[in-house]
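A quick aside before the break. I want you to see a complete sequence-to-structure record at least once, exactly as it would be stored in a machine-readable document. Don't worry about memorizing anything.
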Amino acid sequence: MTDIDEAVDWLGAAVSCDVCGHLALRDAGRCRLKHACVVDRYARRIDRFFNWNPDLANGYLRHPHFEVRAIAAKHADVFLLPPLLDDAEETVRWNAVRRLPKRYVLRLRDDPHREVRIRVATLLADAELIPMMADPDYYVRLVVARRVQAPLLVRMMTDKEPEVRRVVACRIPADWILRMAADGDATVRLEVAKRLPPDLLPRLGRDPDWRVRFEVAGRAPLSQVAPLDKDEDILVREMALSRLSAPGDDAHPGDNAHKEVAP
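That is the input. The structure line, written in tokens, reads:
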């Protein structure tokens, strides 16, 4: 017997319609063994039961099986949901809070489970996200860095996670971008190089990462490119030499060069 064929409850006991309190529902076609059943341990079957019978959800918010409570929370009366924010299971807390007003969402910014905090961060914006900038989980901070208004990102310039700082470098106001040019991670410095105006790029001409120097060779003012024609990396040298060999216009023919280089 496979999982898809069995009908067992959350304790592992066989499900029997004969002892179920919903016989009338079964006879009315509003539930079905192995398909739409609130007693079954499988979430899909529980979900189908409440889709067919949303009016019964209020009565299952205290059920001992967390899947039942979580799915019932999607259908129950909203005014009954606040107590579920203290539920022991994160799935229950999330299903409850996403239907509640913003003031309840704010309560879960410090939820003990990272998945809840990640999802909470997707519901908030700007000043509401500031307390989550110091979240212990890097992915929560990454979501914050992607959503918060750019001026607020100054607070995250020194985040300990390189991927968070890379997002910051992509979005931070231009007036602040140069402050990240000495970041310890090459992918962050590359994003900085892509955003710097050409006249500031020579500051990165000795960067240890070839991708950053390639960006410099492609967009820096022509008068500042010569030191890179002897670069240790062949792609950087070729970019510098190609510009130096046709210096007629001191525009920046390599403006789009970074698009050819994977970060």
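Two observations worth writing down. Residues 205-246 form one domain. The chain has a mean pLDDT of 90. We'll return to this after the break.
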